[in-house]
Amino acid sequence: MRIVIAGGSGFIGRRLIAALLDAKHHVILLSRNPEKTLKTFPAVKSEFWDAKSSGLLVDILNEADALINLTGESIAAKRWSSEQKKKILSSRIESTRAIVNAAEKTQHHPSVLLNASAVGYYGNVPEDEAAETYPKGIGFLSDVCDQWEREALKIQKLGVRCVLLRTGIVLDKEGGTLQKLLLPFKAFIGGPLGSGRQWFPWIHIKDEIGIILHAMENEKIEGPVNLSALESLRMSEFCKTLGSVLNRPSWLKVPEFALRLIFGEMSEILLQGQRVVPRKIIDAGYEFRYPDLKSALTDLLH
Ligand SMILES: NC(=O)c1ccc[n+]([C@@H]2O[C@H](COP(=O)([O-])OP(=O)(O)OC[C@H]3O[C@@H](n4cnc5c(N)ncnc54)[C@H](OP(=O)(O)O)[C@@H]3O)[C@@H](O)[C@H]2O)c1
After folding, report:
1. Whether the CB of 31 sits within 6 Å of ligand 1
2. How far apart are CA 118 and CA 165, in angstroms?
3. Which residue, 46, 169, 192, 206, could crosslink 34 as a Cys pair with Cβ 3.0–4.6 Å?
4. Does 280 fall in a domain?
5. Would you say 275 and 201 are in contact if contact means Cβ atoms under 8 Å apart?
């Protein structure tokens, strides 16, 4: 397949491109900095895209069988000032809108758009199980995901299948949340953030990529898809398992007020969670490579 991937130069995208190339797909990457990306993937055709204009995209999308859009300002890069919140939202809305507008002008529409989203859509869900039918929650991230998903779904009017990748916390050995959590544990001062009772909807990077490929190839999969592991864990259970795999204690709780003081509203990322159930992908027959945290962390850290 000819696959156009926007925002593919990042944490998830780099792994995804490697998997797509392994599977002998033809990949075209859209990036604001194509030269940099070209160095990592010399076999990938890399095109400049400002992440908001649709004009130049039409010719590129004309040749595509599938579109994957992972574009977006990192939610954890900076404290959420009102300017940063605008950037988090607009980078997602403008890029998705441009892709849908360009797809509308193509003679040959792609068959599928896989658009990034996040389990933050559900807001804070302390007790219930959140499968894909669970309603939208409250809060900044939930609002961002909702508006982002609505933009992506507009492509359906062209008869294009649209998959919303509601991703949890992706674990990989290089970068992401796991690398940040490792530091205190390695220094013997690891422990849960906040009360530790909030859910921690994790997923191994190989399952993240495996589910994206499964959803791309399976024409019956449409709409929101939860990308989280089978084993639901609270933050304290996650930290306990991380400590045991590293042979380090998990004891030093970072109090909620301290996190709120340091991170402001952004502490929502750390203090809230959801007991996510990946119902749709289970029903579609996807087999998880790392259903439980112990096997995932053992793979990533040993
Ligand atoms: N990583 C996770 O655990 C996780 C969890 C849930 C949801 N997600 C979502 O999944 C998507 C991919 O995640 P990721 O971790 O791979 O993201 P990432 O590493 O931050 O990469 C996203 C890409 O978006 C582009 N980008 C960054 N800032 C931008 C801005 N201000 N305006 C326009 N484009 C910008 C960049 O591409 P260029 O510089 O090449 O243009 C970047 O490589 C994101 O939308 C994220 O919200 C990720």
Report:
1. yes
2. 7
3. 46
4. no
5. yes
Between the CA of 219 and the centroid of ligand 1 the distance, in Å, is: 26
Q: Which atom of ligand 1 is nearest to the CA of 77?
A: 20
Whether the CB-CB separation of 13 and 5 falls below 8 Å is answered with yes
Mean pLDDT score across all residues of the chain: 96
71 lines ligand 1 (CB under 6 A): yes
Q: How far is the CA of 73 from the centre of ligand 1 (A)?
A: 6
Mutation test residue for ligand 1: of 4, 5, 12, 268, the one with most atoms within 8 Å of CB: 12
Q: What is the CATH number of the domain that holds 109?
A: 3.40.50.720
Can you give 120-136 as a three-state secondary structure string? HHHCCEEEEEECCCCCC
Is residue 244 situated within a structural domain? no
Please tell me the residue having the least CA distance from ligand 1 atom 19. Answer: 10
Our answer on whether the CB atom of 209 is closer than 6 Å to any ligand 1 atom is no
Domain-embedded: residue 102: yes
Alpha-carbon distance of 123 to 269, in angstroms, equals 10
pLDDT of 15-45, one tens digit each?
Answer: 999 999 999 999 999 999 998 877 888 889 9
Domain of residue 82: give its range: 2-171+203-229
CA distances from 290 to 44, 66, 205, 297, 299 (A): 29, 27, 9, 9, 9
Number of domains present in the structure of the chain: 1
List pLDDT tens digits, range 95-104. Answer: 999 999 999 9
Instruction: Enter the pTM of the model.
Output: 0.97
| 176 within some domain | no
Strand partners, 227: 167
Query: How confident is the model over 224-246, as pLDDT tens digits?
Result: 999 999 999 999 999 999 999 99
Residue 11 CA to ligand 1 center (angstroms) comes to 7
